[in-house]
Each structure stands twice: as C-alpha cells, then as structure tokens.
Amino acid sequence: MSKSVKGIYKNGQVQLLAKPEGVDEAEVVVTFPDNDQSPRGHGPRGRRDAARKWLREAGWALGGAPYATRDELHDRTR
Question: C-alpha angle 51/43/56, rounded to 5°?
C-alpha cells in the first residue's frame, strides 16, 4: 500500500513534513505540482469546483429540465 507525505524541496533536497509510519526504508517517487495549472483552493471542494468548471467549458450539460416523475417514466413504457 502506498503512503503520501507532504514535503518541501529546497537546495536539491526533499524534507518531509511528517514521518511516514511503519516505513524505515523505501523507494520513493517525487511529484512536483504545477502551480500554474492547479485548481483554486485546496482540498476536495477546490478540486470539485475545478472539475465542474472544466466540464462546463468542455460543453457538458450540468443541469437542465427536471427529471421525469415516476409516473411519467411508467407512462412512457406502457
């Protein structure tokens, strides 16, 4: 199972902001976020808002007429 720990890269070294529990030695992959492309805000709400914006810009309909009622759905199948 992989673990994620935030850190800071400075002067050619990565300093972890927390010690990962249960890890004495491990291979790591360091990913640098692209700050110019990151969504506004942090956490789930910022990512959700960025995803909604992207979907709207891509032409996806995110709303519209209300859903049909149960009776309307059954009338269509008779």
Answer: 10
Residue 45: Cβ-neighbour burial (10 angstroms; 0-12, 13-18, 19+): exposed
In order, the DSSP letters of 42-78 are SHHHHHHHHHHHHHHHTT-----SPPPPHHHHHHHH-
pLDDT per residue, tens digit, the chain (78 aa), is 788 888 988 999 999 999 988 899 999 898 887 765 544 556 777 888 888 888 888 888 777 667 778 888 787 655
DSSP H or E run through 76: helix 70-77
Q: pTM for the complete prediction?
A: 0.40
